[in-house]
Design a protein that fits this description.
The protein is mainly alpha-helical. It contains 6 helices and 5 strands; from the N terminus they run αααβββαββαα. It folds into 2 domains: 93 residues, no CATH class; 43 residues. The longest helix has 12 residues.
Length: 137
């Protein structure tokens, strides 16, 4: 469900940026967000992607990682994804220290067997964040 909301394809209009804003509003956010990091995007996307087009090879190139895309829309989707977003989420388990650039990455980690956060038992800050997200969406 979180991945669907992050995709920006949900009829509700929810997208990754809005989901991050809602997660940051949760009273538990200090336990799973990296203090002092901005939630702002690294690049604002405008409709003209021509500066990223290589006319000789006929592809669009990401200005951050150099990955090539056959269409401008593909590059725009890449730039709007979490690919180059800062790692603003952290595992709330003090012994873990893993960081993530999306809510879904954090949730998948906590749901895995590698984490003792307690999502399956209904306790813990991530379970509380999930309840908050679903109440707000």
């Amino acid at each position: 469900m979180i991945i669907h909301l992050e995709s920006g394809n949900c009829p509700s209009g929810m997208n990754c940026d809005r989901l991050i804003d809602i997660a940051a509003e949760c009273f538990q956010s200090k336990k799973y967000m990296v203090k002092g990091l901005s939630r702002e995007r690294r690049l604002s996307i405008d409709s003209d992607l021509s500066e990223y087009r290589d006319y000789y090879d006929e592809f669009y190139e990401c200005p951050y990682c150099g990955k090539s895309f056959p269409h401008g829309l593909s590059l725009k989707q890449h730039l709007e994804s979490t690919a180059h977003r800062p790692y603003i989420f952290k595992c709330p388990d003090r012994d873990c220290g893993v960081t993530f650039n999306s809510v879904s990455g954090l949730v998948q980690h906590v749901e895995s067997d590698r984490c003792d956060e307690g999502i399956r038992s209904g306790t813990g800050s991530i379970q509380k964040m999930l309840r908050w997200l679903f109440l707000q969406t």
